[in-house]
């Protein structure tokens, strides 16, 4: 009984006090870029929104992932991205994903570019279509300006007669 209580206390301690040991911590794009030599060739976890077009290359694809600051290219097996439904652009918010992979400061396989070669990819939030809202102030101003142009044009017509 005493061993079980000790084990439970140790697990609670680690879960509360040391979550970075149990749960993977995502690196930010700024951290990866600014400390690229430190992360080169090492496993990283990176999370963000899928943006732009997915660029298919046979059984692999390039996926651009934006974490709110920068965008990093991720080389991923096509089977890992089968659940990606939304890619961010001005009409949609892209799916949010978390990628575990190997970071390359100067990737020899891809022309020396900085990239991540994904080993695992998880969708953590589904994207959506973004509806455009009409700005009522701009609409009112546009109507007033159109009225002023029409009035000027009508007055100019009557002035020449």
Structure description:
The structure is a single chain. This protein is α+β, with helices and mostly antiparallel strands. It folds into 2 domains: 26-129, OB fold (Dihydrolipoamide Acetyltransferase, E2P); 136-161. Helix content is 34%, strand content 33%. The chain has 5 helices and 7 strands, in the order ααααβββββββα. Strand 2 and strand 3 form a beta hairpin. The longest helix is centred in the last third of the chain and has 24 residues, at 136-159. The termini are far apart. Residues 15-23 have low confidence and may be disordered.
Keywords:
161 residues; alpha+beta; OB fold (Dihydrolipoamide Acetyltransferase, E2P); 2 domains; five-stranded mixed β-barrel; 34% helix; elongated
Brief digest:
This protein has 161 residues and is α+β, with helices and mostly antiparallel strands. The protein is built from five helices and seven strands.
